[in-house]
Amino acid sequence: MPEESAQPPGTTGGVRLAEISDGPLDPAVVDTAVRGPSYGAVVVFTGVVRDHDGGQAVSALEYSAHPQATRFLRECCAAVAESTGLPVAAVHRVGDLRVGDLAIVTAVAAPHRAEAFAACSALVDRIKHEVPIWKRQMFADGLSEWVNACG
Fold it and tell me: What is the spatial distance between Cα 5 and Cα 33, in angstroms, rounded to a whole number?
């Protein structure tokens, strides 16, 4: 995965990685993107395809992204990095995913865990609400539905 660095590694804050990927996600890549000697906490969130939703069995998901989705993802990362002064990274998957596959990986590093958890949560929420990515849920009964969602 290519890095989109706003600042060199080891410096305070910034977007270290923000991309949409059609291949499997590696949490270690996202984790490494935000690490630095000043940070005692790195929080990594992985959104995993689960086998149910709303009481229905889910067999698979298909994620589709708007052509400008990467720009929106970078803007979300930049907003959180700017408001917190912390390094952030996020990668969202598109394409066909099976139960157990990773749909999104985000990471934030901070001197202490509380601020890393809060910033990572804010990042995931912002991505979910602002990045134009849609998922098609395939249900075990053969039906499917599209929803605007992330992770």
Answer: 9
Report whether 52 contacts 88 (CB < 8 A): no
Phi then psi dihedrals of residue 88, to 5 deg: -130, 155
Burial status of residue 10 (CB atoms within 10 A of its CB: 0-12, 13-18, 19 or more):
exposed
* Per-residue model confidence as pLDDT tens digits over 77-109: 999 999 999 999 999 999 999 999 999 999 999
End-to-end CA distance of the chain: 19
Question: How far, in Å, CA of 28 to CA of 11, rounded?
Answer: 19
Q: Which of 18, 19, 37 is nearest to 81 (CA)?
A: 18
Ordered DSSP codes for 96-141: EEETT-EEEEEEEEESSHHHHHHHHHHHHHHHHHHS-EEEEEEETT
For residue 28, with 0-12 CB atoms within 10 Å meaning exposed, 13-18 middle and 19 or more buried, which class applies?
A: exposed
Task: Identify the pLDDT of residue 149.
Answer: 56
User: Is the distance from CB of 12 to CB of 38 less than 8 angstroms?
Assistant: yes
Structure tokens at 84: 């917190």
- pLDDT class for 13, splitting at 50, 70, 90? confident
